[in-house]
């Protein structure tokens, strides 16, 4: 029976919820059996499977993803094609170059919701503020995200979309503020932070479909991590180590991650990505995705942002406040 379930899960071209009731991947069945994991690892692939989300049924796991298929539709007219013909260095890890920026190497747990886009988006802004200013500005990403979720977003909100540009567009319009946590207690919709004098405007939102992978590498190497949209297939849930290449045809939804570097492992080129499923998933929350083949659509859907300090007072709300690390 387990072998039959494995065949359905990893070779069926239909969507997960279209399988038969006996092997329904939207049921409450725990799919992380030792037998299925052994069968995956026997496929002679470039990555190893393991128990990451053991105890959660697939019906609950699907809350980790977005069902929307829209991808950056809100900024189609702003698309730029960036090309860098010069060859980049063979490997790079943002955590090493900017070791003073803790947000780059921090892994978050989004829980049974779908705010991957907000963790990745807030994370990129936190990373790039630190890259630009040294350790002068470090953002508490987890607290910031939870405040924003409490204030204005949520799992079923209109912002919960595969179009990860919506968050940056919102902040581009409203600007953002950096504040100490104590300045916003008790929490309310409005927060008086004028005394901080740390207001930032988003100067440039660059969404690009790179002509070559050097475009992605150049952006990360010089300016810091970027935000990447990926398609999620069933076998990604099992990823434990190595360089992931998709083998399943069962697509579960869309997801947003951060790309922080690249390299090669056992002759296979990869992108180094930070996920938001906690440190028990993958390689302590990170994963390597095959590079150069547009695996999971990642190489065609990336967004980079830069910021500059502004001198203006506006009416701030919690969905625009980035909380400074104490």
TrEMBL record:
Keywords: Disulfide bond, Hydrolase, Protease, Signal, Thiol protease. Residues 88-306 form the Peptidase C1A papain C-terminal domain. Pfam families: Peptidase_C1, Propeptide_C1. SMART domains: Pept_C1 (SM00645). GO terms for biological process: proteolysis. Coiled coil: none annotated. Belongs to the peptidase C1 family. This is Peptidase C1A papain C-terminal domain-containing protein. It comes from Tetranychus urticae (Two-spotted spider mite). The gene is 107362935.
């Amino acid at each position: 029976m387990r072998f039959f379930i494995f065949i359905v899960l990893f070779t069926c071209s239909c969507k997960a919820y279209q399988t038969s009731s006996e092997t329904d991947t939207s049921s409450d069945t725990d799919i992380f059996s030792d037998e299925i994991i052994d069968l995956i690892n026997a496929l002679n692939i470039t990555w190893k499977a393991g128990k990451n989300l053991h105890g959660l049924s697939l019906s609950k796991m699907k809350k980790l993803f977005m069902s929307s298929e829209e991808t950056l539709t809100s900024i189609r007219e702003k698309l730029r094609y960036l090309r860098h013909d010069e060859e980049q260095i063979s490997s790079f890890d943002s955590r090493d170059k900017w070791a003073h920026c803790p947000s780059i190497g921090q892994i978050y747990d989004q829980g049974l919701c779908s705010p991957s886009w907000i963790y990745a988006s807030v994370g990129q802004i936190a990373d790039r503020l630190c890259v630009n200013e040294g350790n002068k500005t470090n953002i508490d990403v987890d607290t910031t995200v939870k405040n924003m979720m409490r204030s204005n977003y949520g799992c079923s909100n209109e912002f919960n979309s595969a179009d990860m540009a919506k968050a940056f567009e919102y902040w581009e319009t409203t600007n953002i503020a950096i504040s100490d946590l104590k300045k916003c207690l008790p929490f309310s919709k409005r927060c008086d932070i004028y005394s901080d004098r740390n207001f930032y405007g988003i100067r440039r939102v660059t969404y690009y479909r790179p002509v070559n992978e050097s475009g992605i590498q150049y952006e990360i190497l010089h300016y810091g991590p970027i935000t990447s949209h990926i398609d999620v297939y069933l076998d990604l849930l099992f990823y434990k180590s190595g360089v992931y290449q998709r083998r399943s045809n069962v697509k579960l939804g869309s997801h947003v991650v951060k790309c922080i570097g690249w390299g090669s492992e056992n002759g296979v080129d990869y992108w180094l990505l930070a996920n938001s499923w906690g440190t028990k998933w993958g390689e302590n929350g990170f994963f390597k995705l095959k590079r150069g083949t547009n695996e999971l659509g990642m190489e065609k859907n990336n967004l980079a942002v830069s910021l500059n300090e502004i001198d203006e007072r506006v009416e701030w709300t919690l969905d625009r406040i980035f909380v400074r690390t104490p």
